[in-house]
Write a structure and sequence with these properties.
single chain, 420 residues, 8-stranded mixed β-sheet, 8-stranded parallel β-sheet, binds fe (iii) ion
């Protein structure tokens, strides 16, 4: 059999385990590697994998020499706010002056200022801007991701954002899972009428479902935003309409969003900085993935990070994401998040790679298509300019990808490469 592509001379091939449920606790600490390996691709899928030696017998239309470096599954970013108008660099000075994130929001800034910019932008403008950020995300090794709405807070703009996500999914090589985050903040004209606003967002679910504009819904459960009761109501309505559910939970105050996520069988519970002991032990007994966003804690200048060690050691499934958005984490670089996870969450390199590949795929229901390199699975593969997997979290803040492939096609490639 002649293959389309053969990646040979792989110094270290990363083979995270693909199981039916996300990797939990001890299983997160295991990471299989194959040294001196090769991978073949045909019809966009992985068609063979074995040793570099054996690959000499293989024929392929194109050979990619990995030069003895690291090759991994494409990274998965399971939490982004990809589509938005404008930017918020003015807020940095406010934060430096000590104004709290939730106070900026209370004064009509923060999320609400992006809402205005997103309402003002045309669908075409949002598409072009989203495409720019998406390409940068892909260049950093991500081949599957999630994107949320939530900067519209009205029917017209929420649908506009979701349509842009759909178009980006259809026109780019990447797979993008869409999440409806209508209840992301309370719009100014609904202050004091939060339940009426929530009803309006619930009222959009039918149309979103009918047009297949989102697979999941999400809600910001936080002091001054939505209560756990309101979150429960929204999640119940979402499930009833056939959506999977996610929640921005216990980011700043421990309201019990983590527990609620488990009770509602959410595919993921995200942030969890203030998650309680009870919440963590509930998570450990569930298949809900804890999507941790340490880049956000870092960017908000907080000292307290999510308790990843306790979560993993208790047996929970942990994943990592950028939370890319214009306010609380302004970076498209998931590798940087992997470094912050090492430095601040004290996660090991093995846990970090499982978190950013297979568990991230589970967090958006994409585990059958993404997160691992296996025969028959889409060939989403990254050749890194790094000697081994420990190197990526270690050397921080820059892009280490050399070749990024999605479904066997090159999405991004760097001309030069570094000699170790
Ligand atoms: O996940 N926490 C709520 N939402 C976003 C921030 C959005 C923004 O500040 O624009 C987050 O951090
Ligand atoms: Fe977020």
């Amino acid at each position: 059999m002649r293959h389309d592509v053969l990646i040979n001379n792989i110094g270290q091939l990363l083979l995270p385990k693909n199981t039916e449920t996300p990797l939990k606790g001890e299983a997160m600490k295991q990471l299989e590697t194959m040294e001196n390996a090769a991978v073949a691709i045909s019809g966009g899928k992985v068609s063979w994998l074995g040793s570099h030696e054996e690959s000499r017998q293989k024929e392929a239309d194109r050979v990619i020499d990995a030069e003895g470096k690291l090759v991994s599954p494409g990274l998965v970013d399971p939490h982004t706010h990809l589509v938005f108008g404008g930017s918020r660099e003015e807020e940095m000075a406010l934060k430096q002056a000590g104004v709290a994130y939730l106070d900026i929001l209370k004064q009509g800034g923060g999320i609400l200022s992006t809402v205005q910019a997103t309402r003002d932008a045309s669908e075409e403008e949002l598409f072009e801007k989203g495409k720019f950020h998406l390409e940068r995300i892909a260049s950093h090794g991500v081949t599957t991701m999630e994107a949320k709405s939530g900067y519209g807070l009205d029917k017209k703009t929420e649908l506009k954002q979701l349509k842009v996500v759909k178009k980006l999914n259809e026109t780019s090589k990447l797979d993008i899972t869409a999440t409806f985050l209508g209840p992301h903040a309370i719009p100014e004209d609904y202050k004091g009428r939060e339940d009426a606003f929530l009803d309006e967002m619930i009222g959009l679910l039918d149309e979103i479902k009918k047009k297949n504009l989102a697979q999941y819904t999400d809600i910001f459960c936080e002091t001054g935003v939505f209560t756990t009761e309101q979150s429960l109501r929204f999640m119940e309505a979402s499930k009833e309409k056939g959506f999977g559910v996610k929640i921005h939970a216990d980011e700043i105050d421990p309201l019990g969003g983590t527990e609620l996520a488990v009770d509602m069988d959410a595919v993921s519970a995200d942030h969890l900085v203030a998650a309680s002991d009870a919440g963590i032990s509930k998570l450990a007994d569930s298949s809900t993935v804890a999507v941790l966003l340490p880049g956000t804690t870092f960017y908000l200048g907080k000292d307290t990070y999510a308790r990843a060690r306790k979560m993993i050691d208790s047996g929970a499934a942990v994943s990592l994401a950028t939370d890319f958005n214009p306010g609380s984490c302004v970076t498209e670089n998931l590798q940087l998040i992997m470094s912050i996870a090492a430095l601040k969450l004290k996660m090991t390199p093995e846990e970090i790679w499982n978190a950013a590949t297979v568990n991230a795929a589970h967090a958006i229901g994409m585990e059958k298509q993404a997160g691992t390199i296996e025969i028959g699975k889409p060939a989403d593969i990254v050749v890194w300019d790094a000697p081994n997997y420990k190197y990526i979290p270690y050397h921080y803040g820059v892009n280490h990808t050399r070749t990024v492939m999605k479904n066997g096609e090159v999405v991004w490639e760097r001309a030069d490469s570094h000699v170790f």
